[in-house]
Amino acid sequence: PPQNPGLATPLAAFHPATNGQAERFIQTIKKHLKAMNEEQGDINLKIRLLLMQLREVENSEGESPYTLMFGRDLRTRLDAIMKPVQEKTETVTTPYKGNCFNVDDRVQVRNYTNNKKWEFGTVKKREGLMHYVVTLDDGREWRRHVDQVRLTHYRADT
């Protein structure tokens, strides 16, 4: 895993699931905009209200995006009439238990450059939780998502 989680991590090509949060956010915005289209009123006001609602939604740890960014809660009309909640629930997170490869494991990696679907290689290093750098038998290095890598016992003739 990266030392600084705020830094961007390169993602594997042809694997949109690695950009799932952004894709889901866009899907949510589009859904709400379609619903707003049927309502009467000023579109700018409706968009401002939508964005405020999205900034107020808490994540799995009970923190809203606004709170994470500014260090305080966003003040809404509802906050003025409600008492603050003192108890925070603990979240239990389970580590990813999917395919895990070790350095020097013999693997096949998905090939998107020609008709040959898989290339053979060796795991060089792990990048983050789901990405690996694989050195192919011909010396090239490819970065692939864990779903694009599979373990093999085939050894190339040397």
Automatic annotation (TrEMBL):
Transmembrane segments: none annotated. It comes from the Eukaryota. Coiled coil: none annotated. GO terms for molecular function: nucleic acid binding. SUPFAM superfamilies: Ribonuclease H-like. InterPro entries: Retrovirus_Pol_polyprotein (IPR050951), RNaseH-like_sf (IPR012337), RNaseH_sf (IPR036397). Gene3D superfamilies: Ribonuclease H-like superfamily/Ribonuclease H. This is Uncharacterized protein K02A2.6. It comes from Cacopsylla melanoneura.
